[in-house]
């Protein structure tokens, strides 16, 4: 049983804290701000396609999924969103998160639909957003292919080193479509080198508030 404490971050949005790991799900400088910067702006908005296949490592609170749903709806961009999670949240905890009040107060039902969607099947959440959550260990699951965009949102390498390994980045590379992008909040040299060894071309770009840099990888 994992203990998760609800906490407020600096931009007023919630995150979860796991005391046993001493780790947060998001930046304490702002969960929404981080998600927007790292995954939406540095990731989604870089993809120039008329429909997009996204793979997220770590569904967690559903914040990245929800922000992607809202953004792609505004862009009228159809999305297939695959998300892996080993330790799903219970619905009651998901209901306490304040993301809809911060982002789209009338979209509670869609946010909860992301959490309530059954695992291991494709579920149409809105006319432009199809979700396929996969329950299990990212290191063991068979991954979908032809992915245009990967949100690599695992816990930090110091806290969960088994999520940042060469085999997983090699596997992700084979699942990435030509021109596809992988984005992560992490800027560590060891992670950059693993991505490069997998085959990606990697750049360091400015990180979200509180973080100087982050990584963005591309399959050329
Ligand atoms: C940094 S949090 C993700 C935050 C999430 N994207 C969000 O917006 O809330 C990391 C997530 O990875 C999940 N996780 C941990 N180990 C995993 C594994 N082996 N395979 C898949 N997911 C894992 C955690 O349960 C947690 O939800």
Kindly list the characteristics that best describe this protein.
220 residues; alpha/beta; Rossmann fold; 3-stranded antiparallel β-sheet
Main β-sheet: number of strands, strand sense, barrel status?
8 strands, mixed
Name given to the CATH homologous superfamily: Vaccinia Virus protein VP39
- Unreliable stretches covering 5 or more consecutive residues: none
What portion of residues is helical? 25-40%
Number of domains: 1
Cα-to-Cα separation, first versus last residue: 42 Å
If you compute it from the alpha carbons, what radius of gyration comes out, rounded to the nearest whole angstrom?
Answer: 16 Å
Overall morphology: globular
Structural class: alpha/beta
Number of helices: 7
How are helices and strands ordered from N to C? EEEHEHEHHHEEEHEHEE
Question: What would you say this structure looks like, in words?
Answer:
This protein has one domain: 3-Layer(aba) Sandwich (Rossmann fold). Strand 10 (201-206) and strand 11 form a beta hairpin. The chain is built from seven helices and eleven strands. The radius of gyration is 16 Å and the shape is globular. With 220 residues, the protein is of the alpha/beta class. The strands form two sheets. Strands 6-7-5-4-8-9-11-10 form an eight-stranded mixed sheet. A three-stranded antiparallel sheet has the order 1-2-3, with no helix packed on it. The N and C termini lie far apart (42 Å). The structure holds S-adenosylmethionine (SAM).
